[in-house]
Automatic annotation (TrEMBL):
This is Phosphoglycerate mutase-like protein AT74. InterPro entries: His_Pase_superF_clade-1, His_PPase_superfam, PG/BPGM_mutase_AS, PGM-Related. Substrate binds at residues 66-73, 127. GO terms for molecular function: catalytic activity. Residues 25-58 are annotated as: Disordered. It comes from the Eukaryota.
Length: 330
């Protein structure tokens, strides 16, 4: 499988704490004083009720990082004796994570802003946490706005300790059945991962809406969200965000170990892969021409707008229209 999104200096030239989880149950009558309207313990509710406060700017980027090389990437026999969540990075994986952090910092610094920060979401698996800790070496304390461990970002579950010969049989069956829908015994399918990523996406959208990662009193447009996770999970995240089809997902390749994909805020406020990556990179990743046309639209569209001409979710589903009818619709 191809290694994609190598973030070399040439590509980077192409385009230029810890958060508290607030409970959402209504506050009791004695939890907050009348002076604050009963909202002192609920900053997001205070934001919603304060009409004079400026709306937090959307983060400049959402950066998707795949963990560095792990022991399991080198030798699949590891999974027969080590629980998947406990598989560690190799020495090469540590080095990849450190370089990944430096590359992300160089990319951000090219913006020229002096108030930039990073906020991390991370899978609880050991190899993801080790990747986070090593890539974060590139950032001073003042640049890290916070971090949240997020179990929904974990790797696809292949079913506890994995017998190597049985996994060969299961993976061959997955190829026949379909990569997206095949569920491993005592484990998950990619469709199951899609369901939990849908929940995480809604959490992320809420965090962006209320500016949860913005330090008190700050409304910087130069916030960068970094999601440290796993190959399939990140592909599913992109599929869910951009509403790609199952067929389009099946054609995608894994991000390389210690590499990253950048969703950058476009001119209208939406996130597009084409703001940072080249069309050639995205084609290598597996994007089709129709997907690239949609990414071009994402560069200029505003949040909430719909792409009525999108071939991904529109005409491609129907076969009874004539070419003349299609031309009339254009």
């Amino acid at each position: 499988m191809a290694t994609v999104f190598s973030t070399s200096p040439a590509v980077l030239r192409r385009n230029s704490c810890s958060a508290k989880c607030c409970r959402h149950e209504p506050a009791g009558p004695n939890q907050n004083s009348p002076a604050d309207g009963g909202l002192a313990g609920f900053p997001e509710k205070g934001f919603a009720s304060n009409r004079t406060r400026a709306k937090p700017p959307r983060p400049r980027r959402i950066i998707l990082v795949r963990h560095g090389q792990s022991q399991g990437n080198v030798d699949e026999c590891v999974y027969t004796r080590v629980a998947d969540p406990k598989v560690a990075l190799t020495e090469q994986g540590v080095a990849e994570a450190e370089e990944c952090g430096r590359e992300i910092r160089r990319m951000i610094e090219k913006d020229g802003g002096d108030d930039w920060k990073v906020y991390f979401y991370v899978s609880p698996y050991r190899r993801s946490l080790e990747t986070l800790r090593n890539l974060a070496k590139a950032f001073d304390r003042s640049r890290i706005a916070g971090v949240r461990e997020e179990p929904r970002l974990r790797e696809q579950d292949f079913g506890n300790f994995q017998d190597q010969e049985e996994m060969k049989i299961q993976k061959a069956a997955r190829k026949r059945y379909g990569r997206f829908f095949y569920r491993f015994p005592n484990g998950e399918s990619a469709a199951d991962v899609y369901d939990r990523i849908t929940g995480f996406r809604e959490t992320l959208r809420s965090d962006i809406e209320i500016g949860r990662f913005q330090p008190p009193g700050e409304l910087s447009p130069n916030m960068n969200l970094v999601i440290v996770s796993h190959g399939l999970t990140l592909r599913v995240f992109l599929m869910r965000w951009y509403k790609w089809t199952v067929e389009q997902f099946d054609a995608l390749h894994n991000i390389g170990n210690g590499k990253f994909v950048v969703m950058e805020r476009g001119h209208g406020g939406r996130y597009s892969l084409l703001m940072h990556h080249t069309r050639e990179e995205l084609k290598e990743f597996g994007l089709t021409d129709a997907m690239l046309i949609d990414q071009e639209w994402q560069k200029h569209a505003k949040p909430g707008e719909l792409n009525y001409d999108c071939q991904i979710t529109g005409p491609s589903y129907f076969t009874h229209f004539s070419d003349d009818q299609d031309n009339l619709l254009d």
